[in-house]
Amino acid sequence: MTASLVVPPAVLLIGGGLVLPLLQGWLRRVAILVLPLATLYLIWQVPDGIVLAVPFLDYTLALVKGDALSRLFATIFAVMALAGGLFALNQKRTVELSAAFCYAGGAIGVVFAGDLLTVFIFWEMMAIASTLVIWSAGPSARAAGLRYAVIHLLGGVLLMAGITGEIANTGSLAFGKMALDTVPRWLILAGFLVNAAAPPFSSWLPDAYVESSWSGMVFLSAFTTKTAVYVLLRGFPGAELLVYLGLFMVFYGIVYAILENDMRRILAYSIVNQVGFMVTGIGIGTEMALNGAAAHAFAHIIYKALLLMSAGSVLYMTGKRKCTDLGGLFRTMPLTTVCGIIGALSISAFPLTSGFISKSMISEAAGLAHLEVVWYLLAAASAGVFLHAGVKFPWFVFFQKDSGLRPPDPPWNMRAAMLFFAALCLGLGIAPGPLYAILPFAVHFEPYTAPHVVFQLQLLLFSGLAFFLMLGWLQRTLTITLDIDWLYRRLGVVLVRRLDRWVQTLRSGLAAAATHGARGGASWLHRHHGSDGILARTWPTGLMALWTTLILAAYLVLSYW
Amino acid sequence: MSAVWPHLPVLQVLIPLFGALLAGLLRRPTPAYVLATAVSWVAPLIAGALLWQVVQTGPISYHIGGWAPPWGIEYRIDVLNALVLVLVTAVGAVIMPFARLSVAFEVGEGREAWFYCMYLLCLTGLLGITVTGDAFNAFVFLEISSLSSYVLIALGHDRRALLSSFQYLIMGTIGATFYVIGIGLLYLVTGTLNMADLAARLGPAWAEHSRAIVAALAFVTVGISLKLGLFPLHVWLPNAYAYAPSWVTAFLAGTATKVAIYLLVRFYFSIFGIAIDLRLLPIADVIIVLSLAAMLIASLVAVFEANLKRLLAYSSVAQIGYITLGIGLANQAALTGALVHVVNHALMKAALFLAAGAIFYRAHTTELKELAGIGRRMPLTIAAFTIAGLGLVGTPGTSGFISKWYLMVGALGAGQWIPAFVIVASSLIALIYVGRVLEIVWMREPSAQMAAVGDPPLSMLLPLVVLSLATIYLGIDTEWTAGIASMASTILLGGLR
Predict the structure, then answer these.
(1) ipTM over 0.90
(2) What share of chain A is helix, strand, coil (3-state, %, to 5)?
(3) Which of A187, A372, B113, B354 is the most exposed place for a label (fewest CB within 10 A)?
(4) Residue B55 to residue B53: CA distance in whole angstroms
(5) Chain A residues in contact with B424 (beta carbon < 8 A)
(6) Which domain holds residue B374?
């Protein structure tokens, strides 16, 4: 392992992604599978410390800097690129996979970045590449992709402003733990949080992701939010604000996922929910919580991708995405069903799955840090996760009524990708040792103790029971549309509804005011800057000359003052 | 060769000058074009040699006709103007292959030889301003370049080119007059026109003639500000750029305003700054305020603009605001940023205007609403446009990022939060107007009348691709641009009182 021979793993994957459109036939297929594997090999060749530094302007950029946390995230990103590439082999739009590889390469670049500027450069590369992934779904994704790009470029501007300010303040590019004591650092945090889909920017994720293609969303689910988790882990561990933001995201995701009818939108909201768990863990900030957040990110990428692969297979085979149009697919898509269920069990943190061994670490850390409220909220949220993703998704898509659809399981490569990730979900759940071994801190945690398992099983059992008890009422309304708002009523959570309505009123009021303001502002801008405005039209020559005189007069008057 | 070597400074100006005369005499398009190309390609060799010499051995002083300064005219070359010489000649050389077809198409039969004659005269003027160490000689070259550029603009295919050229003529003349009034005042006070001599004599004269010197500074600043298109003295610029032949716009955008900026820097830092303490005067504050206004207002106008060339012209006004902001802030990082942006903006704007020219050559229009989906018809042209456009926004990995980075560091280093904020805000607005164009040309469905449109011939494509690749290259390797600009700004700031 010679440090001097290191090729940056990110460069290999990005370069490969750019070359990919030139390849065709079997060569392309081989390249799609070999590139992530080669990248994975390179990732494990990166030793600790700064490996590759280049001078840039007056600074030195640490393009590649290795440590346990970087390698952990880079590993799962490369594995994700591999499985995603396998799953997407028969995607006809070549742009998508190229963009997805550049996107994955950007994510790997961020996690190996040793300084803020390198983070920013790869950050922006990810923003551009992911936008292309969305756009490659075709014309229907155009508007959503544009909205996505705007939000992310806004986040990039916040980040850039923060980074320059940080450098001006400290004179150093270094990217390490930062205390939230200056304006630039708040800006950096804000830039990171935009990508983590934290409030008030949570809605870009379900808005844009579901417009991507059946394979595109598999990639999208993995990189942007998890890189944000990584940079938060690196930069702001233990920032108390993150606990509250994380909890908000957890419940935001649950409420909206329960209300949702589109199967992939359910899963999109559940990304926000799951990232909320990680952000909460980062906010708690103890070694165990940080380990938990990192492990949960690792596990989440696998099972969320698995869920989206099974949803993607359904979309690919049927062309339908609404729960009300689907159902009864287990008869002809047994493998997709089983893999979907494994993913659903994992996201619900069922014992013997990967979700259990990672999420329980975060809860345990909250308990050990004596954050009782946080612990109870996380426990309640676990039940909510089971409700919306663990049961609702597989039930409505694969069982429930018979929709009359009889699609077969998808082609071999998609099946293989699903089997691969399903095996990983179970493997990590049964033997968490290898994952625990590569976490950033030493693990003093044993997931399979009797209280843990019993508690989790009780939780899941009762929330599952609640779901099926209410199924009778569910099915009556389902024939028209999935209107679950009675669920709140029946559960006695009238408050939620009240609050929801109140928030809606407030939001529509604010939105109206904002729209009015924006419209007024825009028309003001257009009046002055539009092509007939005073600032844009051609002035008479005399007026120009007059201005010249005025500026001269201004200089003279100010000088003689 | 060794006989020629000491005379390089004057040859830099003489070769285009005699080239212009010859092109006028040749009268036929092809020989005139070949001559202009030859001259344009020799010029950067001379400029490069001069830059190399200056970096190696320090400033060069060349005495015209052997008359020693301050009586004779001195050509004086240091790192700053050597950099500008390389820039101007390089832009001219790179875009020359584009000219043949574009000019034949837009300027028309019978006027091509005169066109190349005027171009070479304009080049002479610009190089002369840059190379000379004599304030009045600079005025003469300023007039040569201005008069020839009025003609070049008036040769545009649209009749509105005449009006634009006329307005530019009036404004340019006012600017030149102001400049010469300023020089006159300085001459009255010091009795000299040599720049170095002026710098030495102004200091002692300050006690007695401070009013005259302040007035001279104001006149010179306003006069040059007019030529470089500083807001709100920029109104001639959008029309002149929009209606001039496409190739002329690319040339002027890459060179003329940049040379005017050089002249401002020269007066500001090498003459007035050495003689008197500029911090006592409000000049820098006024420049900063006007620059900020330019960055915001001109960018906003560009957002609403319906014509691609006018949009790019307003973007130029905004980008010039970045440069003058760096001059106004006047610290090491900011001035470096300004000088780097002179180079970077020149190259990317030349690329963008060439792309607009290529589009006009194929599609016969630059109205944005008619360019829907043209990216699918002219993929290479629009790809080059996209790269340069991203540079304009300041995307990392492009040269625009480098300049904005230095400016940002300079603004924050000076403790100026408002300029720092405006730099970011203006970049965002740039993103909107560039994004708007990109959305139209890439994402929309091409219209039926664009069906037969394709990428232009290689001779037009090549300069475009070279310039857009330069946008990326200079965003990664900054040794030449930032290195030399930093060297220049160290010298300029080191001399300040």
Answers:
(1) no
(2) 75, 5, 20
(3) A372
(4) 6
(5) 157, 160-161
(6) 282-497
User: Whole-model pTM?
Assistant: 0.74
Closest to A168 (Cα-Cα) out of B414, B149, B128:
B414
Quote the minimal CA–CA distance from B490 to chain A in Å.
14
Tell me which of B224, B248, B280 is where a domain ends: B280
Angle at B437 between CA B431 and CA B439, to 5 degrees: 90
Mutate to test the interface with B, among A124, A552, A557, A560 (most CBs of B within 10 A): A552
Residues B80 and B28 in one domain: yes
Q: Is B373 in CB contact (< 8 Å) with chain A? A: no
Interface check B405 vs A, CB under 8 A:
yes
Give the per-residue pLDDT at A440.
Answer: 86
Q: Which residues of B touch A121 (CB under 8 A)?
A: 396-397
- Kindly report the nearest CA distance between residue A163 and chain B, in angstroms: 10
The reply to whether B216 and B320 lie within a common domain is no
Q: What is the mean pLDDT of residues B229-247?
A: 91
Interface of A with B (CB under 8 A): 56-57, 120-121, 124, 142, 146, 149, 153-154, 157, 160-161, 164-165, 167-168, 525-526, 529-531, 533, 535-536, 538-539, 541, 543-545, 547-548, 551-552, 554-556, 558-561
**Are residues B100 and B117 both part of a single domain?**
yes
Q: How many domains, chain B?
A: 2
Q: Which of A146, A165, A529 sits opposite B300 (nearest CB)?
A: A529
Query: Residue A282 in contact with residue A289, Cβ under 8 Å?
Result: yes
Name the 3-class secondary structure at B75.
strand
Does residue B263 sit in the same domain as residue B273?
A: yes
What DSSP string runs through B201-258?
HHHHHHHHHHHHHHHHHHHHHHHHHHHHT-TTS-THHHHHHHHS-HHHHHHHHHHHHH
Closest CA to B468 of B382, B364, B351: B351
- CB atoms under 10 Å from CB of A228, counted, come to 25
Any CB–CB contact under 8 A between B160 and chain A? no
Q: Where is the domain boundary, B264, B280, B296?
A: B280
What does the pLDDT average to over B334-354?
95
Q: Is B322 on the interface with A (CB under 8 A)?
A: no
**Using alpha carbons only, how large is chain B's radius of gyration in Å?**
21
CB contact under 8 A, B397 and A121: yes
Residues of chain A with pLDDT under 50: 1-5, 475-492
Place of tokens 């100006």: B13
What is the average pLDDT value for chain A, to the nearest integer? 84
Contact B420 A161 (CB under 8 A): yes
* Domain co-membership, B445 together with B380: yes
Amino acid at A279: V
Please report, for chain A, the start and end positions of each structural domain, with discontinuous segments joined by +. Answer: 1-182+193-233, 237-469, 470-510
pLDDT at B157 over 60: yes
Dihedral angle at the C-alpha atoms of A403, A407, A408, A413, nearest 10 degrees? Answer: -120
Measured from the Cβ of residue B399, the count of other Cβ atoms closer than 10 Å reads: 29
Chain A hits for B297, CB-CB cut-off 8 Å, are 529, 535
